[in-house]
Amino acid sequence: MASLKTSAEIGAMAEAGRRLAEVLSLLAAEVRPGVATMHFEELGRKLIRERGAEPAFLGYRPHWSERSYPYALCVSLNDTVVHGRPGAYVIREGDLVKLDLGVKYGGWYVDAACTVGAGRITPEAQKLITATKTALERAIEETRPGRTLGDIGWAIEQVARRAGFSVARSLTGHGIGRELHEEPSVLNVGRRGKGEELTPGMVLAIEPMIVAGQGEVKERKDESVATADGSLAAHFEHTVAITKQGPRILTAP
Ligand code: MG
């Protein structure tokens, strides 16, 4: 069961989300060849602190892991779908850089991600970015009272398939609020009209992860998740509240 938020609580989450959106867009603007991925971690921590917020991933131990995560940010490159770690790697021309960031502010968690190409990228990489962004937009259109979790997954899967891509298997979005990961899981596949009905007060982190290849993924030793076939992956995420009037994107500037 999803925990429902009042409109005042959704307003408080939007305050957190505005801060996250500002930080994420400042980080995205720094993506270019020659920049080490640790730069985003260092700058991200500073920008989060300046806004009176806390990094949500730093020290967080997800239920699937035995260890807590040592960074504020996930930086995933090329065939890495999610959970890539910032480090000494220096970004090269053509890299697909995924930035995934959670923050906590006023006791509320919010979560968002984006994919940015470094310098000139291939037409296929651009098409993948566009499809994944479109998938998130279409999913958000479904995020309204009377629709279902299946409608969200269906919308994402349709966009991926029509572009000739696949949804990364077994990776999902999630409810969010007082905890970073709450019920329900938000699958990136689904059947129209099936699954839990969406009701006002639900807040979901919707995060299509779309790959150019077949969709199977593997976990690496450092707990990052990559495509099994080495194909490129893209990821976009927003934290979205369901209101009587429709979807409200909380991680927008
Ligand atoms: Mg998330």
Automatic annotation (TrEMBL):
* Domain of life per record: Bacteria
Q: Name one GO cellular component term.
A: cytosol
Any Pfam family from its record, for instance, is Peptidase_M24
**Reaction(s) catalysed (UniProt annotation):** Release of N-terminal amino acids, preferentially methionine, from peptides and arylamides
Residues involved in a divalent metal cation 2 binding: 111, 174, 207, 237
Documented EC number(s): 3.4.11.18
Q: Which UniProt keywords are present, listed alphabetically?
A: Aminopeptidase, Hydrolase, Metal-binding, Protease
Concerning PANTHER family, the annotation shows:
METHIONINE AMINOPEPTIDASE (PTHR43330:SF27)
Name this polypeptide is given? Methionine aminopeptidase
Q: What is the lineage of its organism?
A: Bacteria, Candidatus Liptoniibacteriota
